[in-house]
Structures are given as C-alpha cells and as structure tokens.
C-alpha cells in the first residue's frame, strides 16, 4: 500500500525567476514526509508540480514507472487519481454543503451510485471527526473543520499519495495537535504515502518519518527525521529549532552585515534540543515507516542530543518507548549500556 514517488533533478522557474533547481528526493512508499522551508521558497509550487498542475522546466517525477512530466493530459488525468490533495486554504466550494463538497470527486471521477457515494462520504466524515455536520456550509464552520473537510475530500478516492499544504496554518495548538494525530492515524489506516508542507516546528519534529528543507532555491537536505533533527548544518538547525539567529533572515537570506553582527555579538547556536519520539497511531499499532528510536543515529555513528527518545514529561505510562520498540527487527545491540540518550526499551515504573 502506498506508492513511492521519485523526484530527480527537478527545476522550476516562472519566466526568469528560478523557484528551485535540481531537486531530487524519494518519498518512500507508505511513509510520512514533511517539507519545510521559509515562506515563498516554492513549497506549494513543488506540490503542484507533483500532481502535474504545473510543469517543471527539467527533471522527472516517477510514480509506478511513469514519468509524470512526460505523460499526455489524458494519462496524467488517470495518474492523478492516485493523489489526494489538501490545498493550503482547504479549497472547498463555498455554496456547497460539506456532504456535497466531499462527495464531489466521487461524482466527478467515478460511476458510483448515490448510495455508494453516501457510504464513502459518511465513512470519511467519520474518519476526520465531522459526522453530523453534513448540511453545514463551509462559511458556517471553523477553520479547523474546513481543513478536516478538505482532508475528507482528499481521501474519498482512496489515494495512494496524500499531499497536504500547511494543514496547521491558522489553527490553534490544540487543533494542530489533533490534526497531526489524524495524519498519523490515517497513514496507519490507509497506508498511503504522505507529504505534508508545514511551518510548524513541532509538527516537523514529531509527525514525519522523513524531513526535507527547501532553502535558497535548492533542497538543502532531505532524509530520515533523525538525520535532520541531529544535523549541525546551520540552516537546518535554525529552521528545525525556530531560531532567529542563523543564516535565515526575515526576507529569506540575511545579508553579510547581519551575519557579521551576530558573529561579533558572540552569538553561538544553542545546543540541539533532544529528539522527541514520533507520534504513534492511537489504535496501538505501529507506524508503517516505523523504525526503532535512535536506529538511524546508531547506524550512522551520530550521537543524538542528550535526553533524546524519551516520553515527554507528564505522559505517564504512555509506554511510548515500549511501543516504539515493537518495530520489526529491533534488538538492543549487545554490549551497549543504556544511557540517557538511548534508554531502550524502557520499562515504565
Ligand atoms: N503561477 C505562478 N506564476 C508565477 N509565479 C508563481 C506562480 N505560483 C507561484 N509563483 C511564485 O513562486 C514562488 C513560490 O511560491 P509558493 O507559493 O510555492 O511558496 P511557498 O513556499 O508555498 O510559500 P508559503 O510558505 O508562504 O505558502 C513565489 O515567489 C510566487 O510568487
Ligand atoms: Mg505555500
């Protein structure tokens, strides 16, 4: 379940404005990836390239052996059915109630009877926690509900790939936490490959299996979460830790003067914060892309920041580490003493 998306050497410009060039990454099948980047770096443009709404100048996007950039409109229309997309603003039709909004792709793309449509729409509305709001218009519900309605609509065609553009913009922290949990649960239930564009550092630190960062017209880095979360690379560090100090300024790049001023002020980047455990599905299952906490660091000889991979304070008895350690193939390496950073598996007292 879920399909791999392989992007190679992708370049996109509008006129003479290069948005990004030579972007290469692979979204592993069934895993959740997050794409970060300062505002205006072309994250939304990247998603639109993935579904063929925009054409890149160069490069390829390979899904199930097809290069999307070379497909005819007719074949592209077929391949697009693999995707479920939640656009930045939810993109609901204002004059249609939620039921009709969510039913829209089914009525448009399939020949299902209205009773089948109803079964699917009810199911997806239940999944995103919107049961009972069928007759509401988008203008009558909160921003968080609109996002969830957009998500339900993105799911009705049983997508293999789910693209989500800033699901958390305009949401309060509690609703953001709920929608993040919803992504992890959905990913576990439907097994689709997820790519989530976000500005929310907490989301980036806990939701994905992989993280990418677009910066200065390039993909600065893409890889397993532990690689990015333990990275000393200044841009990655600054972004993932939401710091003002570092190479990224208000208008994307700081000038030499600003950086020099920071250097002269003796500013050093604060130590890396601990790597948190990933969010787990609520139904007690493991994630599709789940690996034991610390496995990437260990395999690559990287010492994670002190205090990494522990249950957050106050989550008594969540047995997070025990569940994380259920991932297949995980055995604690022989001869390795437990320490603060790799206390695994940990038994709750
Ligand atoms: N259809 C278009 N024609 C011309 N320029 C465009 C088009 N779409 C986007 N752009 C430009 O591409 C750049 C990247 O835009 P994009 O919306 O992808 O940024 P973003 O990273 O999603 O930003 P944000 O985080 O604010 O949503 C911007 O400079 C924008 O003006
Ligand atoms: Mg955007």
From TrEMBL:
It holds the Pfam family ABC_tran. Residues 5-241 form the ABC transporter domain. The keyword Metal-binding does not apply. InterPro entries: AAA+_ATPase, ABC_transporter-like_ATP-bd, ABC_transporter-like_CS, P-loop_NTPase. Keywords: ATP-binding, Nucleotide-binding, Transport. The keyword ATP-binding applies. Residues 286-349 are annotated as: Disordered. SUPFAM superfamilies: P-loop containing nucleoside triphosphate hydrolases. PANTHER family: INTERMEMBRANE PHOSPHOLIPID TRANSPORT SYSTEM ATP-BINDING PROTEIN MLAF, PROTEIN TRIGALACTOSYLDIACYLGLYCEROL 3, CHLOROPLASTIC. This is ABC transporter domain-containing protein. It comes from Fodinicola feengrottensis.
């Amino acid at each position: 379940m879920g399909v791999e998306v392989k992007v190679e050497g992708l370049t996109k410009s509008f006129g003479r404005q290069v948005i990004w060039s030579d972007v290469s990454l692979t979204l592993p099948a069934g895993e959740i990836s997050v794409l970060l980047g300062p505002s205006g770096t072309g994250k939304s443009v990247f998603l639109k390239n993935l579904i063929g709404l925009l054409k890149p100048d160069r490069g390829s996007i390979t899904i199930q052996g097809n290069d999307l950039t070379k497909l005819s409109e007719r074949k592209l229309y077929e391949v697009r059915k693999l995707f479920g997309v939640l656009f930045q603003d939810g993109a609901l039709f204002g004059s249609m109630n939620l039921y009709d909004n969510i039913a829209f792709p089914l009525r448009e793309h399939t020949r299902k009877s209205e009773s089948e449509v109803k079964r699917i729409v009810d199911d997806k509305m239940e999944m995103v926690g919107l049961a009972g709001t069928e007759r509401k218009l988008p203008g009558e519900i909160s921003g968080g509900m609109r996002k969830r309605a957009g998500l339900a609509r993105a799911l009705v065609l049983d997508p293999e790939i789910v693209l989500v553009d800033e699901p958390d913009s305009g949401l309060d922290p509690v609703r953001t936490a709920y929608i993040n949990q919803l992504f992890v649960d959905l990913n576990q239930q439907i097994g689709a490959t997820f790519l989530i564009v976000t500005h929310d550092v907490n989301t980036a630190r806990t939701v994905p299996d992989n993280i990418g960062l677009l910066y200065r017209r390039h993909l600065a880095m893409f890889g397993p979460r532990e690689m990015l979360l333990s990275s000393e690379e200044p841009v990655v560090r600054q972004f993932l830790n939401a710091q003002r100090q570092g190479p990224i300024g208000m208008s994307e790049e700081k000038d030499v003067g600003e950086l020099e001023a920071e250097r002269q002020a003796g500013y050093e980047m604060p130590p890396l914060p601990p790597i948190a455990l990933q969010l787990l599905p609520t139904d007690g299952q493991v994630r599709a892309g789940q690996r034991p906490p610390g496995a990437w660091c260990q395999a690559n000889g990287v010492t994670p920041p002190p205090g990494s991979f522990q249950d957050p304070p106050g989550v008594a008895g969540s047995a997070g580490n025990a569940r994380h350690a259920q991932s297949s193939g995980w055995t604690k390496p022989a001869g390795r003493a437990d320490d603060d950073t790799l206390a695994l598996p940990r038994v709750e007292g």
